[in-house]
Amino acid sequence: MAAYIWKHPLEIPPPSEKDWLKEDEEDFFLQDPDRKRDVLPQPVRMINKLVMLVFENAMEIIERKEMLQEAQKLKVQPAKCIPTAEFQVTGRANCLVVSGKYVFVGLSVGLAAFKVSGCKEVCAWDAVKTEICAVHASDLGNECHVLLAVDEMGLVWLFCFHKESFLLIKILNEVEDISKRSTCVELVLSPGADYAGVLLQDSTEAWLEIYRLPKDSWLKEMEKNPGAAAGLACRERRSSWTSVESPVSANKDDAELSLPVLLLKVKPPKPITGSSFKSPLDALKKVDDGSMLGLGYDHLIKDSQWEQQEAIFRSTYREYLEAEGERESKEDIPRRATFHFLLPSRILQVGPEMKVQPDIPAGISVHWDGSHNLCLYLLNHPLKEKVDSDLKPDVVWPCAAPIACSAVSSCSRYLALACEDATITIWDKHLGYPLSVTAILEERLIRSIHFLRSSAAASDETLCPGTDPACPIVQLLVLCTDSSFYLVKAPRAGKSSITLLADRPEDPNLAVSTVVPVLAFPSAALVFSWDGTVSLMNTATSQIVYCFSTPPSHAVACPWQPVFTVDSVNWCLLLRGDKQQQADVLAESRASHSTIFLFDFSSYPLEEAFPKEPDLPPKSLQNLPWIERCNIFLRDRQQSLLGLKDQLPEYWSRLQAQAAAMDKARQKVKGQKKP
User: What is the pTM of this model?
Assistant: First the structure.
């Protein structure tokens, strides 16, 4: 029997119940009179609703994850590749690099060298127990390698590895006064080890130093004095034992190798201020003095004009500025820069008195954080006793938006720029014009860009500078900050295209930490995820074809910043893995050993997943007569203009329509002037 029951008593409710929901104040029926005592009072009913809401949201998240797992199971799982070899190193491995037949490992206690074949340790440098955080190496030939390493204090160590011995040549940024010490932020070694670039900063400013490495002198000195390697290595170790604070000071006089030469010192652009010119003639005289155009310094705008325009802007958009909470702040000098070494090309015009070689860098490209300009500097300037402290760029490329990142292809022919407005430009440096200009329509920020090896063209690694591949398709891999990445294809003739390879993952553990091209295969890229997954993707099909897995007892170390290197010469991947019980940061920092896993690409059927088209023999422009080189240049220009023929009628019709509209407006004005 149903009973009609009032929800609340008839007396006036207490003030604490005034904010209850209205629907709870209505009458309701109980089908069972025995349940009268089971009804929860307020505010317990409100707490019950909140708990149920949290529970329902949790169930929705669980169901969504289960659906993703079921969809993942239905997908074709990529084949797993197990390591072909492994070796242990003493201490924590922070970085890896392969040069020739050696693997150099930067450790928490120094440097170590291993052979790629056999994975046996051949040499170790642990003189001062210095933790190496980054290392770069290049093979000079004659069993000689040059190494640049950065330690935890930001010091740059220059080594020469000869006959399985480390020779310390110099610490590039060592100073006697520790208060004036600068730290290394970025380090780049040019292909062939002719130059080295070091980005330094102190407490007040940042600057870029370019060094010329006398590698030819090193090779001659090694041949003349074969015993210098062992002798210098022994002296270096003895000096480090006697004086730990200054490991180089004891052996500076004993060093028998030539020292690198500081060639350039590049500072970030200064903020643009008001003009000091009294007339336009003074500005023209400044330009005639050889001052570089494009930086915006030689102008005629006074400080008062800028202050007036700033006041007008703030008074006009005052409400918007207040809503955003904008604060007035002075422009900070940029402290980070991205730079690349460039081989000779048409965009780097050198004088006839300067001799250039096709395989030696002729200049560098530099862009600072927040800057619109790409500055190019020549490296063939004559050496001076004192480096110019106010160096002007030789070429300036202004962009419409600040440059976010850049990349240079392995053959150094193509240069890509990605701006903060998601615009991507690919330049052909040999021909001197942009090959492609595309943009990501979605509002996404670009994190990094990488050139891939195209299956429709000859391999970049087989091309020498100045080659002319037959109608290649330049491919650029673009990684965004939300872990989505795109593929940009730019053919020499035709329109460029942009394809979404992978969208932003819903699971945060599947976020992409690093993307690296694999030049050993066409359209191949390694994708590192936060969950420790290392996948090999075929960008032509957007499919994951293989997955490199560590043994069950180990996991990929620091998946958000993995320690690895890809060797395109020996066709292998070296990856650091840690034991599962060392997953936490504290255990990882205390680990006495690290394991390096080697994945030999030739041991897996990777060539079946990346079919290779027959390569055409490259034609070197440097070895051809001038007539043939001019014919090739004209043919390239003709191919680049093929797409304009279809657009000419549309442009002509627009021009005719605009001329007709102007003529009509002119006739209308004349008619109005007549009485």
Answer: 0.73
